[in-house]
Amino acid sequence: MGWLKDPTGDNHPKVGFTYRIMRRFSRSLMSVWFRELDIVDNENIPPEGGLMFIAWHPSGLIDPMLMHASLPGKLSILAKHTLFKVPVLGSLIRSSGGLPIERPKDSTNKEKSRKNNEILLSKVGNEIATGGRLLLFPEGSTHTESSTKRARSGAARIMLQAIRRSNELGTAMPRIIPVGLHYSNSQKFRERAAVILERPMELPPIPEDHEKDKQWIDEVTKSIDSELNRASHSKTSWEERHLIWKARSVVYAEKIKQTGGKMKKPSYSESVIGARRMRAGWEFVSKEEPQKTQNLVTKSVEHFDEIESLGLSPFDVSAKPNKPSILGYLKAVSIWIWSAAWMLGLVTWSAVIGNVPPYQGNYAIMWYLKKGKISPPIQGTMKVMSAIIMFPIWWITASLMVTWLLLSPSSPVFSLLNLHWLLAKLTMLNPVFVFLILLVWWPISGKMHLKLYSKLVQSWRMLRRWQRWRDDSFDWNSLQQRQQNIGRELISLGDTLVLPGDPDWIEPKTGNDDNLSVRYRN
User: Long-range CB contacts (< 8 A, 24+ apart) of 505-511?
Assistant: First the structure.
């Protein structure tokens, strides 16, 4: 994927060298953490004026690091002040644009905390008024719920300050941009993510009378609540979220069949957009025709539970060819063998030396934390933090050890290399040069290994899929017919509605959810 370019011009704060280095680090880490990462609808970013990016906060440190990597321009990030006291992590957060904010529950002197926060919020408001960019999580803390938590008033208060200051200076109007953060599983390594930039919020005129500030802040905070719900596809339970995603998969597969297209998995961002359509239509029809949706929900849940018990996915059922040939199976075997063969090469052995020891150390830490029943978002945060510390330390250590083995006369490897005139030339290299080359090579080899590993896993999954397709113990006709019927019913419902992404779709007003803009076609 391509990262978004920073804005240029005198109206945008300069992106300094230190910030670019830290963002490069975030981007490298996120590109390793996620096997697929999409940034969608960046045309919604206005060319002028300060910006406040807001998002929900389901995944601890992963959320700000992903936003820091994905969003263009120099971002200021409000984070709880206790994080800045953590060794190494505190310095990294500051270098990345972090600003400490004191939550009352984390402070012993609540009055002092309140005054410090007022000064900070005023400073941030002035920064946005002059073209600065702020990343904020209005919920105030991370959580594991499937729906967003109630937004706090801080975002609205900062924006009120920013708009007033902008009017005084005559600068472009600051805007709030909701951001949808979507993960296939943010706590697992090599999953998928999408960052969806929504259109800027339309805010009411700011009050001339300061006594009406609270009313304006309350109204905007309520709108922020609704926008976060819409951007994050908020649902009351994870079961509802999973049902919507599975239904989206069935609709996608059935449409491909109807059009005669090639069956392949969509990108994650395409899946997110499909889930948005499904959610909007589902909620609309649930209110208009509850009996129809309830019957469809019952059939869908029964079907998905059955295929899950068989170790299948909706894609496995939809993509099965009528007559799985032995050639397809052999092709899957060949790709797996080819990938496995490359895995045994120099790249993999270098990756093992440079990355397995810190990875295992990281795994041991996570095992210990899970025993303590720490919440998943905190686990994800600790996993990233420990990796940030452990991997560089090991790369330095491994580089020193290998440099010694190659170049020290007291090393047994040094003696072996000198037995051959060509290999002996390796022992004459500059130690500093060898150390630096090795220090760079460990992470590069790890990244190359991940690509080979992804290919191996994908080919293994395809091999397993072909094995299941050739298994006659499954009642494939019944499974496919039932899933096809569900897909057709969902498509029939969707065809009667105007949904997000349709040419005649009208985006809901700020503060309204998608289902309020869904309507029947004439």
Answer: 507/199, 508/230, 509/202, 510/201, 510/202, 510/203, 510/223, 510/226, 510/227, 511/222, 511/223, 511/226, 511/227
pLDDT in tens, the chain (522 residues): 679 999 888 778 888 888 888 898 888 888 878 888 999 888 999 989 999 999 999 988 889 889 999 999 999 887 777 777 777 667 777 777 777 777 666 566 667 777 877 888 888 889 899 999 999 999 988 888 888 999 999 999 999 999 999 999 999 999 999 999 999 887 777 788 999 999 999 999 999 888 899 999 999 999 999 999 999 998 878 888 889 999 999 999 888 888 887 778 788 898 999 999 999 999 999 999 888 888 899 999 999 999 999 888 898 898 888 887 788 778 878 888 877 777 666 667 787 788 788 878 887 887 887 777 676 666 666 777 777 788 889 999 999 999 999 899 888 888 888 888 888 888 888 999 999 999 988 888 877 777 777 777 778 888 888 888 888 888 999 999 999 999 999 999 899 999 999 999 999 999 999 999 999 987
* H or E segment and range at residue 190: none
How do beta strands 497-498 and 519-520 pair? Answer: antiparallel
Instruction: Confirm whether pTM is higher than 0.85.
Output: no
398, 489: one domain:
no
Would 220 be classed as within a structural domain? yes
Q: Would you give the DSSP letter of residue 48?
A: S
C-alpha 457/C-alpha 356 separation (Å) is 18
Q: How far is CA 39 from the centre of its chain?
A: 9
Among residues 402, 484, 387, 385, which one has the least CA distance to residue 436? 402
Rounded to whole angstroms, what are the CA distances from 95 to 22, 125, 390, 519? 7, 20, 19, 48
Check whether residue 360 and residue 439 sit in a common domain. yes
Query: Does residue 137 form part of some domain?
Result: yes
What is the residue range of 388's domain? 327-469
Whether the CB-CB separation of 353 and 442 falls below 8 Å is answered with yes
For the chain, the residue count is: 522
Q: Is residue 474 part of a domain?
A: no
* 476 inside domain: no
Which of helix, strand or coil describes residue 476? helix
Element at 309 (helix H, strand E): helix 290-309
Q: What residue ranges in 138-280 does DSSP mark as E strands?
A: 175-183, 191-197
- 259's CB contacts (< 8 A; 6+ apart) are none
* DSSP H or E run through 368: helix 346-371
Q: Is 136 helix (H, G, I), strand (E, B) or coil?
A: strand
Q: Which of 138, 348, 340 has the alpha carbon at shortest distance from 226?
A: 138
Cβ(197)–Cβ(41) below 8 Å: yes
Tokens of 241: 């979220």
Could you give the CA distance from residue 133 to residue 49 in angstroms, rounded to a whole number? 9
Q: How far apart are CA 8 and CA 47, in angstroms?
A: 9
| Same domain membership, residue 464 and residue 384 | yes
